[in-house]
Amino acid sequence: MVKIFSFVADGFDPLDPRGNVTIKWDIMQENDGTQDVKVSIFNYQLFRHIEPPGWKLSWLWPSNGVIWNIWGAEATEQGNCSAFRGRQLPHCCEKEPVIVDLLPGAPYNKQVANCCKGGVLTSMTQDHAKYGASFQMNIGSPSTDGSSHIPGIPGNFSLGLPGYTCGDPFQVPPSKFIEDQGRRRSQALGTWNVTCSYSQFRASTSPTCCVSLSAFYNNTIVPCPKCSCSCQGQPGAKCVKPGELPPVLQLQPNEKLDPVVECTHHMCPIRVHWHVKLSYKQYWRVKLTVTNLNFVKNYSQWNLVVLHPNLRSVTQDYNDMLLHSGESGNVQTELLLQKDPEIFTFREGWAFPRKISFNGEECVMPPPDDYPRLPNTGHLGASALAIPLVILLSFFVYSLIA
């Protein structure tokens, strides 16, 4: 899916200034020395989603906390539960448990609402029904006399995802829940939030995409900057030369493979090409091409965000699967933009985007001095307007006939 947005405000991140992932810890009920807790994870980022293998939530108990039982998720390790010999063993006795979402199709008696997506969360702009996840636990903290007491709110939360840093829990007004088809509202005994922010620099030492440019009024094609994402021959830079077969790689559970890209001068898994295609009297046309040069990954539910002052609407391309490198490894779409007489110009690189991101990751742009320039001659305007106008009219005729 291609989504094109217009932004005019400045801020920390003009593409998503308030984006974060929020962990919500709801105390639902207190029993005899145990507590029922609902944990929710919400991806409040507009364009960045959480891909497989998904989130791996962890925290540090303030005391000897244990998870007696859990629904909608599971701990990766049970840990040392030898202190509970002769009794029912807890689900997890780890001081720092690591919790993962259940996979789709999990046993019904293990499911809860909003669980079982394999840790995958969409972005806010793509699917409002799939940007959150939840699981429920019964927790306690054993004493030396064999009894149990409530461990308290944990700390040192982590999503287990590159680039994310989580803050300390802070108390907020109790969450409210709708029951009985909206006729009753209940609320948690207490609610704490943890805010996790993302940094592209923390996630990776190198970018993951780059941008190339061209225009109908100039024969020059401005390529992605050299070594945008890596350089051939650098340690860890894996690439496949044209005509060679990519390596056969086996993806293990909970493993994320490093990119194996086609050998290029920029070495990026994703290349975005912006081509100023045509100019009409009142409109201008842009062709966007997104090419996947990664041999080990297909991209589904991806998004492309473009920052440009002349964009006024959202355009969608329903081919939402960007296949791995090869003949089918690209998606194209065209944008028809109305000329704003107050700001429109082809001069000084104005027709090219200010910023492009793929899946929330900012792409490397060519230097502004390298942008395709208008020719110095003055005959371009008339000839460039006459022929494309015929093409535009033909397009509308074809649409009406079809």
Automatic annotation (TrEMBL):
This is COBRA-like protein. Belongs to the COBRA family. One of its GO terms (cellular component) is plasma membrane. Residues 208-318, 327-372 form the COBRA C-terminal domain. Keywords: Glycoprotein, GPI-anchor, Lipoprotein, Membrane, Signal, Transmembrane, Transmembrane helix. The chain crosses the membrane at residues 380-401. Pfam families: COB_C, COBRA. It comes from the Eukaryota. It is found in: Cell membrane. It comes from Cinchona calisaya. The lineage of its organism: Eukaryota, Viridiplantae, Streptophyta, Embryophyta, Tracheophyta. InterPro entries: COB_C, COBRA_pln. It is a lipid-anchor; GPI-anchor. Coiled coil: none annotated.
